Amino acid sequence: MPRELTTVALVVLGLLDEQPRHPYDVFQTLVERGDDRLVRVTPGAVYHAVERLERDGLVEAVGTERCGNRPERTTYRATAAGHAALRPALTSYLADDRPAYADFPVGLAHAPRLPADEVAAALTQRRGREAARLATLRARCDEVLALGLPRRFLLDGEREVALLEREVAWLDEVLRDLADGTLTWGGPPPDDFLAARQHHRTRTSAPARRPADRSTS
């Protein structure tokens, strides 16, 4: 049985199922379509994915070509098994049947350990980068839509635009609240909170009382 498809293997297999390609053409197509924002790919990673897919019987070589003095390039296509493997793999990805752990939430969870000005500086840097990504992605989506590409091919970009819009707006709100003091900063959690948490833990961990036996003999 083939191993579970990684994200790189999935996008590579998808392109080879679309039409035969050599690995470097796969890489160029991923970059051209902007799919390198979805998964970290390099030419080496694509070649490695093709080799693994071939070992698993999901793709096969269909020919070689040579351009000038360049090394020969082998063209691959998806096999029937590869075509069949795409459907359950894509369904699993769409249903998000796999946990993902991002770095940013970890930083947010431990941000109170830093001074407010350092937090604001880091979030400002992030806000600028995300706003630039949003502008670039929105422009690319608008461009290909204007050229006639149906919306169904851009759902990933549409979702990312919506998420980036919300994140930039949220970062603006947090930075504004930090600046005007609405978001208080510094010091440990309040004593009232610690006492309330301890009371809650005690109450929820206490064994439930058994009801009195009211039966008569």
Automatic annotation (TrEMBL):
Domain Transcription regulator PadR N-terminal: 12-87
Top-rank taxon, per record: Bacteria
Sequence segments annotated as region (Disordered): 187-217
InterPro entries tied to this protein: Tscrpt_reg_PadR_N, WH-like_DNA-bd_sf, WH_DNA-bd_sf
Protein name: PadR family transcriptional regulator
Matching Gene3D superfamilies: Winged helix-like DNA-binding domain superfamily/Winged helix DNA-binding domain
Source taxonomy: Bacteria, Bacillati, Actinomycetota, Actinomycetes, Micrococcales
Source organism: Cellulomonas dongxiuzhuiae
